[in-house]
Amino acid sequence: MKKLLALLLVIVMVAAVFAGCAKDNQDPSNSQAPASSGNEQPSNEPVNSDEIVDLKWITVGNGMPENYDAWKANLDKYLEEKIGVHLSFEVIPWGDWDTRRNVIVSTNEPYDIIFGNNGTYTGDINLGALADMSGLLNTVPGLTDLIPEDYWKSLEVGGKIYGVPTYKDSSATQYFIYDENLVKETGLDYENAHTMEAVTPILKAMYEKKGEAVFILNKGGLDAIYGKNYDDLSLGFPAIGVSYKNGEAKAVSAFEQDDIKADLATLRSWYQAGYVNSDAAVLDEAPKYRPCFVAQGWSAAAKTTWGPNMKADAVAIQWGDTVMSNSTVQGSINSVSASCKYPEKALKLLELVNTDSYVRDALYYGLEGDNFTYTADGKVVVDDTKSWGMAGYTQGTFFDVSYKEGDNSNQWAELQALNAQAVASPALGFAFDQSNVTDESKACKAIFDEYRPILMTGAADPTETINTMLSAMRDSGFDKILTEVQTQLDAWVASK
């Protein structure tokens, strides 16, 4: 018995030695990450090579980057060390996006993560294309701690969550953007002009100085007129909505409301006066330089984005409240395929993109040492001669993207403040089931698309256009849709 006990003691001691060696070999401090600015997060324990999984992410942008292979090789080293993943992208060009994406989803082409928005989310779920991630969210505390509860709520369909919302300008704030030098030359108080009526004399003065149209629109028109006032409930057309202002989950015929009719009348007067370009209703794409236009974003974007894009100094003045709805939150969503073999890994990857600046910068800016470099203090210097094909807003939060050198705007903090003060739609979290009015919804959307260019650019009389458009919509089942929306809203309110 004594010999047996001694032998067992020796075995235990040897096992302890080997366990200690294994523990030392897995110490995160021993692992190596790619050389960078110091923005990397502490490494997770390395995973065995046979545990490395390949994930494919489908997204939109300017097409596949020229240096994609080198970029992938560099990022894969880091992702392998962190979470045991290698990542492939298919970056579909903007012009091919809708068609190519529909084919991928409808034919169940292999992918693990796909970018979508409020126009695709519910349809993808109804097709059974997306994985229910509700039960896995407790495994990614980095995501659930980062993204506010209301944002997750806005993605609930049938009590389940099928995507990760991109936490950025997830509320919507509209701005009048001016060529700063030109608007200052008017001598008018543009900084306190927060309505279309107040902006009218400013446009008049700018028009007189330029001698040509100064408020440039394309055929999409000034959709902020309804977007800043009504939650369109992700119906696919904005003729039915819920007001942000009265706190009631009541669906109304939006274009028959006084606030929208007043703004459309003002827009018509701008068009007639020549402030709006005469070809607005047929113009596919607006020019980069516009003396004045409206855009969704944040004020610092005038210096970091809008101004540089138009090659002029720009200034942004807020128009209306900051608002939040399912549509604003669902402007950028990444979902895991229902056919994904490794949904936990896919969700871990999305967590890393949203919490690790090294990974986030790689997706946002490109290949370090080629598309960009880091300064000593962790700022980014972009090589403007090198293009990067991925669209940054599609990937993850803005709040872990490194600032560019010289950018002292603190714009991410401004975005967070706007999100925090947003007026939430009374229908936030409501998901409309269109199955009872599918044909009617398609018909009304087609009718709106027909009238939108002349209505939303001021090219036609708004009263006559609204009457004609709504008459056609009512013949196609508009009132049936409105009743169905309200019935579902009432049931949703009662269930809360």
Give the structure's gist in a few sentences.
With 496 residues, this protein is of the alpha+beta class.
The portion of residues assigned to helices is 40-55%
Average residue pLDDT: 88
Poorly predicted ranges: 1-49
Could you give a short account of the major beta sheet?
5 strands, mixed
Task: Determine Rg (CA atoms, Å).
Answer: 26 Å
Distance linking N and C termini: 69 Å
- Range of strand content: 5-15%
Figure out the total of helices: 18
Largest sheet: spatial strand order: 2-1-3-13-6
Number of strands: 16
Principal-axes shape call: globular
Structural class: alpha+beta
Notes on the protein architecture:
This protein is an alpha+beta fold and 496 residues long. Helices cover 42% and strands 15% of the residues. The chain has 18 helices and 16 strands. It has helices at 2-25, 68-83, 97-106, 121-126, 141-146, 149-154, 180-185, 196-210, 224-227, 258-273, 301-310, 326-329, 343-355, 357-365, 411-421, 438-455, 462-475, 478-495, and strands at 53-61, 85-93, 113-116, 156-157, 160-161, 164-165, 172-179, 230-231, 240-243, 251-253, 292-296, 314-324, 333-336, 372-374, 380-382, 423-424. It has a 5-stranded mixed sheet with strand order 2-1-3-13-6. The protein has a 4-stranded mixed sheet with strand order 11-7-12-16. Strands 8-9-10 form a 3-stranded antiparallel sheet. Helix 8 runs parallel beside helix 10 (258-273). The longest helix has 24 residues, at 2-25. The protein is globular and about 65 Å long.
